Amino acid sequence: MSRVTRRRFLQSSLAATAAFSAVPCIARAKDPNGKLGVAIVGVRGRGGDHISGFLGDPRTVILYLVDPDEKVGRSRCEQVGKKQGFEPKFVRDMREAFADPAVDLVGSATPNHWHVLSGIWAMQAGKDVYLEKPLSHNIAEGSSLVAAALKYGRICQTGTQCRSHTAVRQAMQFLHDGGIGTVKLARGLCYKRRKSIGAKGDYPVPAEVDFDLWSGPAPFTTPKVTRPQFHYDWHWQRLYGNGDSGNQGPHQFDIARWGLGMDRHPSSVISYGGRLGYQAERKDDSYIDAGDTPNTEVSIFDYGDKCLVFETRGLSVDNAADEELNRLFGSASGGKFGVVFYGSEGYLVQRTYTDCEAFDKEFKSIKRFGGGGDHYGNFIDACISRKPEDLTAGVREGHLSAALAHLGNISYYLGENHQVSAGEAEKILAAIKSCDDNAATLQRTLRHLTDNGTDLAKYPISIGPLLQFDPSAEVFPDSAEATAMVGREYREGFVCPSADKV
Question: Distance between CA atoms of 447 and 191, rounded to whole angstroms?
């Protein structure tokens, strides 16, 4: 399976830059008022944010809304019509919108399994794309999207909007200028309560949904699904989603990697955790939740002299069970999703999308950073300038950040049947190279589970293998089984091309 190596990426970038310079600006005569025509694919959830973002910019007009759910799509068309003076056209199949030359830009807020193919199809049709996070459903898809943006000379923005926020941009500059000394460890947190999505079963697809189109690149399971709630809960089923490390996580992965200065994949990964605690909530030992992604997951990524640790918690987060984190976030209770950088002279914490703060080693505040930004505006600016370097969150940044979630999940999935006691887990992790205190992070994770009623003797955590990764070739040199999980098989008509075939 061919991959885009760093050398090939840089060579392609030079060629792409030359191609971009030959196009002075995007054609803007398709709309009578000179506005850029927009098609938005996937209009529930994040799709609503895309609608608001493009409606809020005077340079764009929404021409199409695309969704396999006709009820949702037509309702959104009515909403948009009231705000922009006319209704966009509703279609179920995105290819119909992409074929219209009046469409300049595409906003894609589909489920994860559709992200990359929707982006590639749009770019092949000559459109620029704002693509929601995670950029991809698997690592190979991310490489394909990077290659497609280069080949077709298109602008491709990733929906990690913190890259455009003043608070984060200033905090990263402060960090890179040595504000807290030498930084070798970043900890990403997704402490976000996620209740059970319901018992695994056999449930009908809503009548208004074209399930063939909704499934797209994923396997067509039959006209039924195994989760009670059709929309959104696909996040917790691996055929379509990537769990919370691939849902909320890309925001934090992106900032952690940015702060550490890592513009490549890590060289190794190991993960542990499980989908635990729902039996205790239901008081039913036989209860099987419909989700099959971990709700508790810790991944350790090695970058040589630097390390990134990511913690996902989906049970109650009323008690973080960690005094250091509580002091940095200002509270022991409630969800925590952010990033902590550990420097030789202090800490830097990103605790909301628009709030970052630096502390000295005694937790005394040094400097605070605030302010948001306009991520959609940044995308439109780059579409007009034809300069991909104007993007705050370009396609390769999105690929590298999404890939961290995929790498962590690959280790977990390969080890989900390798259940171990707390003592066994501690012995395994003691041998893992890390800038973190692996034992302390493990104990904090185990306490989170027991505080939520998990009987670890009956439901022990699982621990995956330590996997070496080749950042350039994007393969696991010592594990054919792990390398097979870098990509996936596709249905006829919905094949996502490899990076060398886009």
Answer: 14
Domains and CATH numbers, the chain: 6-163+376-394 (3.40.50.720), 166-371+401-476 (3.30.360.10)
DSSP-derived letter for residue 88 is P
In tens, the pLDDT along 465-483 reads 999 999 999 999 999 999 9
Which amino acid is present at 240? Y
Distance CA 32, CA 30 (A): 7
90-113 pLDDT per residue, tens: 999 999 999 999 999 999 999 999
Question: Residue 233: which of 198, 278, 284, 191 has the closest Cα?
Answer: 198
What does pTM read for this prediction?
A: 0.93
Burial of residue 322 (CB within 10 Å: 0-12, 13-18, 19+) is buried
Angle subtended at Cα 275 by Cα 269 and Cα 280, rounded to the nearest 5 degrees: 145
Phi-psi domain of 388 (left: phi exceeds 0; alpha: psi -120 through 50; beta: other): alpha
| Residues 295, 193 contacting (CB under 8 angstroms) | no
